[in-house]
Structure prediction request, 239 residues.
Amino acid sequence: MAVETRTVEYKHRDTLLEGVFAFDNASTQPRPVVLVSHAWGGRDEFAIQKARDLARLGYVGFALDLYGKGKFGSSKEENSALMTPLLDDRLLLQARMESAIEAAGTQPEADQKKIAAIGYCFGGLCVLDLARTGANVSGVVSFHGLFHPPGNTAGRKIKSRVLVLHGYDDPMAPPDAMVALAAELTEAEADWQIHAYGGAMHAFTNTAAADPEFGTVYHELADKRSWRAMVEFIGECFS
Prediction:
């Protein structure tokens, strides 16, 4: 028994994308799929490791790609330049997320009827948009995500379950933004939860985060608690 990974090329319109698929080779049966939506720097090792971790839990993980094959940022400026076009065009972002669902579903290990998504930082916003648009996902989990709505989903009902794992001291999503998200999810009749971790800032799951002036700091306790909450929630989504 071992977790394997393979790269998966797929296209959205004219953009070639490259995700990483993780699965336990001990089973030949299709398993539930959990997408992993990356932070603003691109589909990095952090996202791939989360896909591996999900494979160890009995799922298949798919670290998706939102920017294009080989496109990664190595500084705040480069990361922002990659992320901003998708923040400015949420229809494009949402369509690109849908393309990842389609790509993951083509893999032989994937159960196309059981799909969920988790996302980190910018990726947290992306999985919330999946829920907002009514995508065919059982549940979504946002880790220290961004909350501002896309502007094209008002009045829609949210069918998927939603779990938001949030640092209460996150300057990029302050308490009033959290309350606004709760109101939005309630209006959309979603089955939602928000877990707010006191003393935690943005990027609290990333051990490399150590920039309090920017608002990104690793928080070990919030990291462990949020992962446990995600595991329970995903299990409930697929039960």
